[in-house]
Amino acid sequence: MLLFAGFMFALNKVIPGYSEVKMPVLSNVQPFSFISQDGKQVTENDIRGKVCVVEYFFTTCKGICPKMNRNMKSIYEKFKNEQDFLILSHTVDPETDSVARMKQYADSMGADSNKWLFLTGRKDGLYSAARLSYLLDDPKNNNEKMEEQFIHTQFFALVDKNSSVRRIYDGLKQDELKELMKDIDKLLIEQGNEKSSVNSLFNNNPQ
């Protein structure tokens, strides 16, 4: 036992973080196609190899969204010079949030569209991604009529270079935002070939 403990200690010295528990894979990002604030098509291919922070909001929100995006701005400022980093801010109200409106909002945040994308598109596609890819809402809510649905969530999803969701964070809590920043640093040095078992936050049954 002493020899094994010594061996593990030596490995951790030689390979920093060797003994740390890896973040599990919670889900995988499914194919999507949305439009950015610059009017450009954005698909799952554009986030491959990137560490992404994902949120859902709407531009006319007077409640939690401004607070969320002030917090997201601090994340943007910290990581905007990282080559493999990206923020995806999706609207939950695409009827109101046109490309032009998202552009105006993005400009008000001082967002570089190479690092912070504000995405609009079809409501069903946006909502499916929120629930099935990013786990930011219960997938069972897809059973309701689409025109009656409205997502209002304060949570952020962290996606690794393999387009796998690794953790969910409360975007209004400073302690969780600090953990998010630490985890972004960890994922940025991963080589994009980490494999872990997939869990479910909502206890879905296999289809």
Could you walk me through the main structural features you see in this protein, from its secondary elements to its overall organization?
The chain has about 210 residues and is an alpha/beta fold. It has one domain (about 25-190): 3-Layer(aba) Sandwich (Glutaredoxin), CATH 3.40.30. It contains five helices and eight strands, in the order H-E-E-E-E-H-E-H-E-H-E-E-H. The protein has helices spanning about 1-15, 65-80, 100-110, 125-135, 175-190, and strands at about 25-30, 35, 40-45, 50-55, 85-90, 115-120, 155-160, 165-170. Strands 1-8-7-4-5-6 form a six-stranded mixed β-sheet, with helices on both faces. Strand 7 (about 155-160) and strand 8 form a beta hairpin. It is globular, with a radius of gyration of 18 Å.
Task: Summarize the helices and strands and which ones pair or pack.
Elements: H1 2-14, E1 27-28, E2 33-35, E3 41-43, E4 51-57, H2 64-79, E5 85-91, H3 99-108, E6 116-119, H4 123-133, E7 155-159, E8 164-170, H5 174-189
Parallel strand pairs: 4-5, 5-6
Antiparallel strand pairs: 1-8, 2-3, 4-7, 7-8
